[in-house]
Amino acid sequence: MEDRKWWKEAVIYQIYPRSFADSNGDGIGDLNGITARLPYLKELGVDVIWLSPVYKSPNDDNGYDISDYRDIMDDFGTMEDFDRMLKTAHSLGIKIVMDLVVNHTSDEHAWFACSRKSRDSEKRDWYIWKDPKDGGLPNNWGSFFSGSVWEFDEGTGQYYLHMFSKKQPDLNWDNPSVRDAVFDLMAWWCEKGIDGFRMDVISMISKDPSYPDGETNGGMFGNAMPYVCNGPHVHEYLQEMNRRVLKRYDLLTVGETAGVTIDEAKKYASCDGSELNMVFQFEHTDGTPGRELHFGKWTTEKPTLPALRKILNKWQTELEGAAWNSLYWDNHDQPRAVSRFGNESGKYRVLSAKMLATCLHMMKGTPYIYQGEELGMTNVHWESIDELRDIEALNAWKQNVVEGKWISGEYMMQCFDNVSRDNARTPMQWDDSPNAGFTTGTPWIKVNPNYVAINAKAALADPDSVFHYYRKLIALRHANPIIVYGRFVPLLMEDENIYAYERVLDGQVLTVACNWTDREVPCDLFEEPGRKLISNYASHKPHLLQPYEARVIIH
Ligand code: TEU
Ligand code: CA
Predict the structure, then answer these.
(1) How deeply is 108 buried, as exposed, middle or buried, from its count of CB atoms within 10 A (0-12, 13-18, 19+)?
(2) Index of the ligand 1 atom closest to the CA of residue 419
(3) Are 214 and 190 in contact (CB under 8 A)?
(4) Catalytic one of 151, 200, 374, 495
(5) Of the candidates 407, 383, 372, 332, the residue with the CA atom closest to the CA atom of residue 51
(6) Ligand nearest 36 Cα, by number?
(7) Which residues of the chain have a pLDDT value below 70?
(8) Pairing status of strand 326-327 against strand 366-370
(9) Neighbouring C-beta atoms of residue 320, cutoff 10 Å
(10) If you take atom 23 of ligand 1, which residue's CA is the nearest one?
(11) Which long-range contacts does 113-121 make (Cβ < 8 Å, 24+ apart)?
């Protein structure tokens, strides 16, 4: 068997603090709210919490714009609240992984204030400043949040680079002082006793120094991805980070690596431990083929099983023995899994949520659960643009509907229903009291009206709930090394309806089959005798899988 590691055997639960639990009635989730709900996570059985950013922030992008890395966001509480949360989590055997957002800072960070002051400021070179080209933008790159990546600074007559909002200027990692400062703040958190880092867009910290125009494909702006992802020094900088900080502690590290390929992942997440433990790849979420990219990420289409399976099987088989996978359907940037890949309608919501959970948690890699996924929470139907909160959606609306006028508002709203990040950010549904028990005040974003039926209280009370199914999946992983370490072998590669595979370890075989449709479909994988590990159906029919049936046997 390969090297055993605790982070390979763990299940991670992501908390988006703003939307998890509000302890003081201001409508915003906070650290004390999380502390109070830790017993719930203990019952679920997760090993680790990944906390989306809780640092001081003006909240242009809900904490992904940090103005002080050594302080807590006012909305979320104080450093004492943080310390208490960490201590309580540790006393329950739960680790805490911090979100490290260091591709960029907030424009309100003291570093940027100093950088922008004058062309010869001591921190000028900490960010990426360029002169105007032919009196205009330095190049044609488009930002992830609409518009150009360049913002002109009147005071000093230069542009600064921001891959995301203009309140998120990109740091210049080529400057050694920037790396020193980042490694210092990481060590500061490690000394506090945190258990790891999820590294925001860490694949983007080294840019192509020639800053060439990108392909426009008929759009207004050029595609910067080839010039900002997996750049010339990214592995050198991560190896330096590893030597100077990571390897001094026992951490879980996961890189969010937009634009990552298999070959790049083998470097970022190499088994030799020289960089990170694992990466998040985006192909099955942001890049599923079959989803036509009309403009940016916005689409009303759903991914198909064959396309999705081809991607995931590739990651499963090609990283074998070389690097470690992370497994996820959902996070705070994605629509809800049951709405996107499953079936959110009444009859099949629970069955399909369990099917998706089985399909993912039996694969090889470390699974991530996003808050509410364990309840089968669904997307929201947005009634009007006023209900959306996310800067990505609001900027896209402005650029495409209000100013550009090439997309109808009606169509854009359908795209938001399908893929907007706010679908993941509606409040956690705790019970059937007003505002789903999330807050006694006015929630910062609308609560999904289906909370009356879909909530944690009801799920805990129902032994057949999605929650208890996740609890069982987590417990199975902890008890069966084959689920963690078994080799992945794809099955039924041409089947239109079934996602099936085997895991193989020391003469044992685990067979997994999941019906992705609402019909009975033929399946002969279970005719050999074996012991059932888990299924979302109590009884089975020969030679077929029932609608959304998932079945796992060991033999
Ligand atoms: O997201 C990085 C990223 O690549 C995004 O483009 C992501 O694909 C997009 O949000 C999907 O619509 C990270 C964080 O996860 C995200 O919340 C932040 O907004 C972003 O970085 C900037 O920090
Ligand atoms: Ca609060």
Answers:
(1) middle
(2) 12
(3) no
(4) 200
(5) 332
(6) 2
(7) 1, 287-296
(8) parallel
(9) 15
(10) 64
(11) 115/169, 116/153, 116/155, 116/156, 116/160, 117/155, 118/155, 118/156, 119/156, 119/158
Which pLDDT tens digit goes with each residue over 21-76? 999 999 999 999 999 999 999 999 999 999 999 999 999 999 999 999 999 999 99
| Ligand 1 touching residue 200 (CB < 6 A) | yes
Nearest ligand, measured from the Cα of 29: 2
* Helix pair 31-44, 466-479: axis angle to 10 deg: 70
What is the C-alpha to C-alpha distance for residues 255 and 9, in angstroms, rounded to an integer? 18
| DSSP element (H, E) containing 244 | helix 234-244
Does the beta carbon of 333 lie inside 6 Å of ligand 1? yes
Q: What is the pLDDT of residues 93-151, one digit of tens each?
A: 999 999 999 999 999 999 999 999 999 999 999 999 999 999 999 999 999 999 999 99
Q: What is the pTM of this model?
A: 0.97
392 lines ligand 1 (CB under 6 A): yes
Residue type, 166: K
Please give the single-letter amino acid code of residue 289: P
Q: 384: which 2 tokens?
A: 């009007």
Expressed in angstroms and rounded, the spacing between residue 24 Cα and the centre of ligand 2 is 5
How far apart are alpha carbons 547 and 552 in whole angstroms?
16
164 within ligand 1 shell (Cβ under 6 A): yes
Q: Which of 151, 256, 333, 390 is catalytic?
A: 256
47 is known as an active-site residue: no
